[in-house]
Model the fold of this input.
Amino acid sequence: QPRVFSGIQPSGGLTLGNYLGAIKRFVQMQDSGIETLYCMVDLHAITVWQDPAKLRHATREICAAYIACGLDPERSILFNQSQVAEHAQLAWIFNCVARMGWLNRMTQFKDKAGKNRENASVGLFAYPNLMAADILIYHATHVPVGEDQKQHLELTRDIAAKFNNDFGVDFFPITEPVIEGTATRVMSLRDGSAKMSKSDPSDMSRINLTDDADTIAKKIRKARTDPEALPSEVAGLAERPEARNLVNICAALSDRTADEVLAEYGGRQFSEFKPMLADLAVDRLSPISSRMEELMRDTTEIDRILGAGADRARQIAAPILKQTYDIVGMIRS
Ligand code: TYM
Done:
């Protein structure tokens, strides 16, 4: 029986990358009738320093974004990670399953720790083990994510397989990453070789879900491009990362393929394409940001949704943790 789990870190505002690469897909999976759990992974966020008030705000804002984008707290289980203690409990077991060598190869750790690895938190190093626990504590089978999470999901599979093998059980499922569509890697608007990210120092590099219409239009107008006209097929975008990015964003926002977009805009200049893309982005994003703003006015209601979601999540997680403890040899009396 399929079960979907995914999560987003409340480590800042949400970007167009989070929306197109993750949340939009979350909604599609919910609407296809599969059981879905979507988390705000606050324990992951604190692997780098977070101001407590900002962490609370960002956690609620993701919940508001989930709902504004079409997740329904009745149909999907929405909750923040720290309210379901089983995540951290299973992560400890996985700390004892995963190998240092596996974690040493994680590119996200290398990027985030930078040159000063000695000064990175232990949590940042063990981050992928907690992520595996998030998924496997629900025996989730499918995990929708953007391209950047692929390596972490491979590690999740390795952990599940090693646990099963070490204890001679067939207990944890080998999870399928779901990395599909035209927006699995939305790039920076300033640099076609860097991912659009909430942590990029330049706000012009990204579109935030909370940006107003003028800001969105300005950022798209100023997005870096080359001087050529658009090609009429995707193959023509191969050496043009900035152009490809804008075409992919357009495709994802309008639920078309990149080739369909180019069939319409091939031969046209960016001076025509960009205003159209700006209008499209404003049209799709402004209902989301205004709904988010409304929802954020009642944080009591958001916190209630998170608490209720956590109760439902725990119902699934608690028996799986108990079985794990039994397999490992922990006495429960
Ligand atoms: P995070 O918080 O960095 O990003 C959340 C989701 O958004 C996707 N994403 C993007 N997709 C396309 N283009 C982009 N520029 C872009 N930027 C972000 C990410 O791929 C992700 O799907 N480790 C995870 C959070 C996590 C998690 C989990 C995910 C913790 N436990 C369990 C799935 C399952 C992370 O840092 O995502």
